[in-house]
Amino acid sequence: MNRKIGFISSIVICCSVAVFLICLIMALFAQNAFTENLSYGVCAVLSWGWVATACVYSCFAQKERRAAAKIGVAIGVIYATIIGIVYFTQLTTVLHKSVDEKIFQAFSFTSAGSWLFNLDLYGYGLLAISTFFIGLTLPTENKVDKSLKLLLMLHGVFFVCMFVPILPLPATNQGNGGTIALICWCLFFLPICILSILHFKKLRKNNEII
Question: Mean per-residue pLDDT for 25-37?
């Protein structure tokens, strides 16, 4: 059951990142409310999928690495909670503009430097820390796991994004810089998702042999 959940959750996060990447590429050419809201939805699903994946990774952690695994799961839960608040707000309060204009600007994700924009960056910084600790627990018995471990830990570098809101930012997004940065992140994180699928698929096969 553990391996099956890990396999399925890895597919979920892989599909979520892939759809998010497509939405971002489309946004480079034209702004579209549907793809924008779709990207919010799949990012929320990504956060739930990562928590499930991290939990499964923790189940197979060696005894001396279980503390790191628990830290990775705990931080992942905080990340998912924050991201859930951000994107649920975008798909409800912001989408229907059900608050005063001043409050709307604070809630709107499209406004760089807004409260929820900064909260989103904080959430993804926590995801980076979570992947780092999960990477610490991963054994390296084959090339797939070695590559996966390396990418999980290197992804930890993205924790710096939580400090970006401390820096002065323009009141609104201008240009495609932010979108291009997110595309680069997707291209980095997508191999982690694919390797996770291969990791749990191999575990399932080994389990059947045993």
Answer: 89
